[in-house]
Each structure stands twice: as C-alpha cells, then as structure tokens.
Amino acid sequence: MAMAKASLSKLSLYLAVSAGAYFVGEAIAKHGLSANQAVKLVCDQFKPRGPIIGTWVMEHAMRYPDHDRLTYIYHGGFRQQVGYDLLEYEFIVDRKTGEIIEVTQIENDAAD
After folding, report:
1. Which UniProt keywords apply (predicted)?
2. Could you tell me if 13 and 47 lie in one domain?
C-alpha cells in the first residue's frame, strides 16, 4: 500500500512538472523569452568552451530592424574564461523566437 502511494506521488509530481513546463512553453510562444532566458540560451551554447564569469543584459527588449521586418531583441554580454584568456562577448537574441542573431567578441584593450 505504501509502495502504491509512493508511485502515485511520483506520478502526480511528474504530471505537475510536465503541465508546468507546457504552460511555460506556451507563455514563451505567446510572449517571447524573458531577458534572463535569453542570457541562459546564449551562455548554454558557450559553456562547453569554458566557465562563464559574468553576464549582463538589457532588461527591456529593443526594436531591431532585421532585413524586411521589425523584431524585438535582447542585447547583452558575457565574459568567459578560455584557457588563460578572459574573453568578452556581446550578443543579440530575438525575443520572440529565441534565435541568436549575432555574437561578437569584444577586443580587449590591454595596457602595454
């Protein structure tokens, strides 16, 4: 009997998590990514190269002309340790689709 309750409890938890994930997915499809989701999306792509040291992102989406359409994007950046180098990047992510439109490495102006 206790085993049946434990299995039922696990099933209930699984269904609740699945339903929650579904509704979050629906919210993203309807309203787009949040700024934090955009940062996570980009950083997840770069993590295999080395640890992410710090991130920043503009909290409000900005208008961005993309060829023949106007889209809203998040602009942000991050630092990453790759070997002995600390690299800086800026990125642009489409708020609605989650597409990473651009990632640019920023040149460090090291003092000589």
Report:
1. Signal
2. no
Q: Cα–Cα distance between 88 and 99 in angstroms, integer? A: 20
* DSSP class per residue in 18-72: HHHHHHHHHHHHHH---HHHHHHHHHHHHGGGS-EEEEEE-SS-EEEEETTEEEE
pLDDT in tens, 14-26: 444 444 444 445 5
Q: Write the CATH number for 54.
A: 3.10.450
Contact 59, 33 (CB under 8 A): no
Output the pTM of the full model: 0.67
